[in-house]
Amino acid sequence: xxxxxxxxxxxxxxxxxxxxxxxxxxxxxxxxxxxxxxxxxxxxxxxxxxxxxxxxxxxxxxxxxxxxxxxxxxx
Length: 75
What we know:
Layout: H1 2-10, H2 21-30, E1 36-39, E2 42-45, H3 69-74
Antiparallel strand pairs: 1-2
């Protein structure tokens, strides 16, 4: 990865490292960032920005697969 990044940067092409999910979470943890939220036993990634006037909040868990399918079909 470093070889490609260096070649792109040498050619004046904006480039940076692309991390795996595991690497991204490891880096966030090393930086002391709290990036995971848990609601009703479901872990999700927190909203990435902190908004002072309208803070993001998870109010309920995401639905299970097809959890609301019947309601949607009935319209």
